[in-house]
Structure to design on (757 residues):
């Protein structure tokens, strides 16, 4: 059934305005009018009825009131264009396609289930935002994109927030949106991509089948080339439904692009600066793959310099002796690798720091656009190389090796010992801090992370949700040494990411036999609860622990501060910010979606046994939710 | 040793009570508990008074007078100030009295799981 969520006249008015709509029987609405509307849906027919509150026709009313039936089939098309589109999608090795069904891509949908036999596998989502956020989480866990399908204008608009998050996070997603669904004029547009054009890397609206194939291949390549980002192709419903031309188009050849690396002269200069520095430091925001983390470890160990996070994904092992701020002192050379300027959840600007010389290697600025300012103050540095750090590291490591003399090596080793000792002490203090509020009720977030660790440390695990709202306790307490051990935040700070992105990440992790851990904030959960059903339906090994602080606590703090500045008192700060009266029963919510659940847990003594039971079920291949009533923040 | 600690605690409590008495009334922890939530103290300091981005309030090391002075003018952009128009001295004494009732955390060395984590990290 088509959707009528955003019609220009509104759902109620639309129905009210339909002359005699309520009086006409359902049977009389399934008339030849529907056939005419569905079969005559070419681009030329789209304009009719658009541009205002035109009287809806019988087909539109039928779709709105649920009485629509498929039109009588007057022709057989056994080689539809959408079969070719599926050939192209399969040629790219895309594993999954997520969507909430919509009539503008019903041709493609039918090909996916009956032509390619559900390969790539369809991930049924209850909202377009979930479909795109799932693809976001998948790409971060798997290191490559999946496909999301969107329905006409309304599907694209529903997906917009999730697309923006992925853009801010520089994560590749290939999206195809259908248009030309003429039964509901409000569901098509002349330029469908315009709604999200400011935050996709590229979009195209090809008008031939061959053009669609070429666009999908090009879109995929652009999506995975740093700076990575979502891409969108809009495809007319007729191109999907109509027969292929007699000469079936060839599937275009896909060539994997090489990643952009720094020029050799710059690499040599950076190596010289780092080796000659007394107190160099590296900040790293992300690694594309595990190889990126391994290369960074090699560079840091050669230089014996500390490595800090410059973003919110894990790109350097959390318990490595060089992980942290080290022994301090004036930093003379700072190397920022995709650090800051990524818009990754915190709106950070370029991490210039106080170093005498700052060098930045980043592709972030290549994604700058005229409107949205996801890079804050931009990527700053005395030397800025627009390149992919991971692609640059092999050459940099080789140049550094060439410059390290035996004397330098001894100096570096002494330096490394001091940094390691300082980092060890800082880490020990971090662990000790977990004791604060240990026995408190509601439960402290440190305790959740601490109790989880013994249950997952001997498993292959992936922490798939943002940790900013949970005091970063997972990375403070857990041994994160793989890039999939922490996938980072929303990208643009948009809520409604955690639950569906966890589903997508769990999808990727499942294939590798990994369990996924999601510490799920309650505010975020209520944007996208349908993600729980998707997790249950697809049997995803995903443990979701509710960080149920019963409110939007960041906003409580901000409102309290605003009231303070105005000297009006803070006693009304709960209005519009708390999720109480009634409290939300998340265990019951999960159960309703078909998921095993426990809670609400308020006594910290009950936490470990519940988590243990949850992990046991997850290891058997099912999603579980444990609702824990928590302290507001970490 | 226990006697000494008890003695210090007793002295501190006595001093605190005297300080509160200086405001002409005893802090009412029950009323203070309600205000701790109503006035959003918990949002930054946790329901526990010690979890969150705000300063750790437990154990409360300030006397009531110093606590009131701090709340009136925290001297930081993070902590909102609470003027006498918003919360009277008596109300702040109630909140102070409530915070004093909040249990302190166990020492890290007394929590086996924390020690286990620390040992792992030190390897």
């Amino acid at each position: 059934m088509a959707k009528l969520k955003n019609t220009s006249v509104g759902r109620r008015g639309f129905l009210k305005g339909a002359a005699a709509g309520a009086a006409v029987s359902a049977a009389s609405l399934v008339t030849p009018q529907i056939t005419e509307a569905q079969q005559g849906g070419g681009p030329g027919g789209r304009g009719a009825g658009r541009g205002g509150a035109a009287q809806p026709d019988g087909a539109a009313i039928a779709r709105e009131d649920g009485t629509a039936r498929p039109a009588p089939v007057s022709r057989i098309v056994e080689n539809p264009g959408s079969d070719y589109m599926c050939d192209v999608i399969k040629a790219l090795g895309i594993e999954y396609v997520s969507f909430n069904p919509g009539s503008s891509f019903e041709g493609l949908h039918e090909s996916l289930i009956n032509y390619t036999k559900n390969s790539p596998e369809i991930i049924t989502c209850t909202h377009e935002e979930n479909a795109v956020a799932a693809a976001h989480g998948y790409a971060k866990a798997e290191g490559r994109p999946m496909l999301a399908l969107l329905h006409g204008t309304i599907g694209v608009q529903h997906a917009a927030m999730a697309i923006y998050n992925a853009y801010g996070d520089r994560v590749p997603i290939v999206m195809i949106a259908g248009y030309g669904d003429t039964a509901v004029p409000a569901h098509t547009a002349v330029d469908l991509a315009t709604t999200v054009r400011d935050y996709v890397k590229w979009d195209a609206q090809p008008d031939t089948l061959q053009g669609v194939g070429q666009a999908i291949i090009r879109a995929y390549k652009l999506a995975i080339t740093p700076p990575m980002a979502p891409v969108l192709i809009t495809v007319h419903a007729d191109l999907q439904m109509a027969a292929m031309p007699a000469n079936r188009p060839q599937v275009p050849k896909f060539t994997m692009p090489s990643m952009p690396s720094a020029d050799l002269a710059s690499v040599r200069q950076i190596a010289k600066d780092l080796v000659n520095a007394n107190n160099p430091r590296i900040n790293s925001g992300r690694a594309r793959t595990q190889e990126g983390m391994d290369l960074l470890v090699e560079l840091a160990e050669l230089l014996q310099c500390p490595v800090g996070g410059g973003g919110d994904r894990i790109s350097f092992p959390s318990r490595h002796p060089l992980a942290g701020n080290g022994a301090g002192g004036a930093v003379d050379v700072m190397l920022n690798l995709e650090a800051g300027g990524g818009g990754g959840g915190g709106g950070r600007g370029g991490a210039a720091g106080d170093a005498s010389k700052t060098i930045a290697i980043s592709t972030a600025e290549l994604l700058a656009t005229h409107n949205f300012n996801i890079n804050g103050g931009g990527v700053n540095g005395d030397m800025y190389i627009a390149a992919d750090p991971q692609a640059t590291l092999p050459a940099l490591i080789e140049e550094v090796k060439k410059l390290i003399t035996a004397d330098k090596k001894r100096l570096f080793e002494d330096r490394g010992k001091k940094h390691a000792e300082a980092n060890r002490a800082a880490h020990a203090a971090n662990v000790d801090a977990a004791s604060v509020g240990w026995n408190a009720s509601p439960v402290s977030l440190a305790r959740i992370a601490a109790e989880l660790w013994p249950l997952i440390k001997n498993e292959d695990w992936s922490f798939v949700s943002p940790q900013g709202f949970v005091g970063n306790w997972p990375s403070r307490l857990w041994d994160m040494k793989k890039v999939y051990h922490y996938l980072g935040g929303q990208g643009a700070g948009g809520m409604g990411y955690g639950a569906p992105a966890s589903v997508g990440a769990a999808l990727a992790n499942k294939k590798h036999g990994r369990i996924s851990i999601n510490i799920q904030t309650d505010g975020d959960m209520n944007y996208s609860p349908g993600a729980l059903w998707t997790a249950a339906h697809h049997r995803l090994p995903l443990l979701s622990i509710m960080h149920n602080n019963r409110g939007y606590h960041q906003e409580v703090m901000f409102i309290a501060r605003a009231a303070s500045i105005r000297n009006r008192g803070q006693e009304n700060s709960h209005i519009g910010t708390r999720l109480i009266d009634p409290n939300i029963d998340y265990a019951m919510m999960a159960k309703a979606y078909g998921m095993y659940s426990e809670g609400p847990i308020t006594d910290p003594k009950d936490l470990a046994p519940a988590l243990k039971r949850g992990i046991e079920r997850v290891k058997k291949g099912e999603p579980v939710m444990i609702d824990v009533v928590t302290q507001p923040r970490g | 040793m226990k006697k000494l600690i008890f003695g210090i605690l007793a002295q501190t409590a006595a001093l605190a009570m005297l300080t509160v008495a200086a405001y002409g009334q005893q802090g009412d922890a029950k009323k203070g508990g309600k205000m701790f939530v109503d006035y959003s103290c918990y949002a930054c300091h946790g329901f526990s008074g010690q979890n969150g981005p705000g300063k750790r309030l437990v154990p409360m090391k300030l006397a009531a007078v110093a606590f009131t002075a701090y709340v009136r003018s925290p001297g930081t952009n993070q902590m909102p100030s609470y003027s006498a128009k918003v919360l009277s001295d008596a109300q702040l004494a109630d909140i102070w009295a409530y915070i004093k009732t909040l249990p302190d955390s166990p020492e890290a060395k007394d929590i086996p799981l924390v020690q286990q984590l620390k040992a792992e990290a030190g390897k």
Summary: The two ends of chain B are 35 Å apart (CA to CA). Chain B has a mean pLDDT of 84.
